[in-house]
Amino acid sequence: IILSVSTMIAQDCKSFLEIETNRDSSLIFINNQLIGYGKIRKEVTPGKYLITVKENIYRWNEHEINDSVNIKLCDKEYLISYNLFNKLFIDSNPQDASIYIYDSLMARTPNFVNVNEFQTVSLRKNGLSKSILSKELSAYNTIPLEIPYTEKNEIFSESDWFKVLVGTATVFGAASAYFKIKADNRYDEYLKSNDPNKLSEVNRLDLYSGIAFGLLQINFGYLIYKFLIE
Question: What are 186-223's pLDDT values in tens digits?
């Protein structure tokens, strides 16, 4: 009879345990049993309870809090708050990149890092890099690394543009000479025949030769200009 009364008293002695975190996605365990996410409220009897709060059960190097509470009184509200998830999870593609905040090495990806609102986070690995403002980051981040852009100071005489100019100069020079020779030959024929059509053809060929020679002069002028400014 005494045992039965004690059992009834223990069953009637109940309280409420409420656990809240600052992340809705956090997992809350009581005595290794998953109870809920972010914030839970559970009816409990007197005794000691082990509390585990995890950032994410599926992530490597997850952020975890282990705590305990001893419930001694009946009809009480036990409220426990955890505000420890201020770290951001930063991963990279490829992984194992160095995480810098300004010039300070903080960790290697993937990892949790404490980041203030107005900081710049840089990820670096084997010549690949990426910088991002902390205010642009979310709770979980996978950042692709990029090859840093460096302006190439190419020597003009070794550039493709130089080869194009030299090639076109050769074409313009050859075209000018070709049309000039053709015009001279037609002029000799005109002197022998006094055919006005021959003279018209001479003028046309001279025009072609002059255009090609003019383009050649422009080409050479640009080449000289590029050499002078280097």
Answer: 888 888 888 888 888 888 888 988 898 888 888 888 88
Q: Which residue has tokens 């990820």?
A: 123
Percent residues over pLDDT 90 in the chain:
20
Rounding to the nearest 10 degrees, give the CA dihedral for residues 223, 225, 229, 230. Answer: 10
Nearest to 40 by CA among 20, 25, 68: 20
> Domain ranges in the chain?
2-82, 87-144, 156-229
Is beta strand 47-54 parallel, antiparallel or unpaired with respect to 64-71? antiparallel
Exposed/middle/buried for 13, CB within 10 Å: 0-12, 13-18, 19+? middle
pLDDT the model gives residue 63: 67
The angle subtended at Cα 62 by Cα 61 and Cα 66, nearest 5°, is 120
What pTM did the predictor assign? 0.40
pLDDT digits (tens, 9 = 90+) for 29-60: 999 999 999 899 999 999 999 999 887 655 55
- Judge: domain 2-82, CATH 1.10.10: no
Residue 62 CB neighbour total at 10 angstroms: 13
End-to-end CA, the chain: 106
